[in-house]
Amino acid sequence: MMKGILFAFLAFAFFAWGDALVKAIGHGLDPFEVTFFAYILPLLLSPVFMTKGDRIGDLLRWNRPWLMTVRLIFVAASTPLSVMSFRSLPFAEAFAMIFLMPSLVTLLSILVLKEPVRWRRRLAIGAAFIGVLIVARPGFRELLPGHFAALGCALSSAVVVVTGRMIGHSEKRFTLIGTVFLSTALASGLLMIPGFEWPTRDQWILTIGFATTTFAAQALFTLAAAYAPADRVGAAQYSQILWALAIGAIFFDEWPDLLSLLGIVIVVGSGLFIFAREHARHPDPVPEPPEDEVSSESLPERPPEPGFPPPAQR
């Protein structure tokens, strides 16, 4: 299990550094263009996630087409929204607002899945929203488009999680992972056309770096799911806020004030509590494979949902 937890922390470190590269690109490129180029490389390399019996055609062969369609619409929306938020908000502030996702998952579970939610989780949801209000402070400072983009990313990621739970084991692991890259690249490729500009050399370097970290993070995330239960893997995502605070301070000279730090602590604490309660209700144990190299057959058929864009997810 410890190996899986280590892989999970490494995966979310790669996700965080990829988001830092997005922030470094800044406003020089259209967010859809950044997303398109970042997901082409993972799409081309996605066959490495295939197991015995998988075919490339499984990317378009779905057992539950309506649910998959809804899932992929929100998958394709989450990364461009995260790009918009990271390039216009302080790094840690964007992460804090995106981490509203577990609370939104619980709300959608009540509305869509008709799941009962006890008072503890209801209080945690309320606390998470209060934490976001403390971070954003509407009425006391200007609300930027990045704030709405971060909330949109959180909502999109929550829909992906809930639809993934509804899909269950009816789709192949390769289908679930590969369609993330395919749908995001396809949608962003179409939407980038009106504002397309050929990237400069520096922008190419940063974009290729983003693509590389995206693929590496997903590969590490899949390995983590092979060695550790989903609750241990998913909880590691909150290490991203530590990376965000460190990267924002060191590379972007972003120092959150005390109120922002308080809001971040409330959001992260509420999310961790909700996450723990969710996985107490939906346990997903994964037996530890042998200590030798993980084979394709030892990987779980359906790992936890890919991170953010979840999700630059994400």
From TrEMBL:
Residues 305-314 have a biased composition (Pro residues). GO terms for cellular component: membrane. The chain crosses the membrane at residues 34-53, 65-83, 89-111, 123-140, 146-167, 174-193, 205-228, 235-252, 258-276. Residues 2-136, 145-275 form the EamA domain. The keyword Hydrolase does not apply. Pfam families: EamA (PF00892). InterPro entries: EamA_dom, EmrE-like. This is DMT family transporter. Residues 281-314 are annotated as: Disordered. It comes from the Bacteria. Keywords: Membrane, Transmembrane, Transmembrane helix.
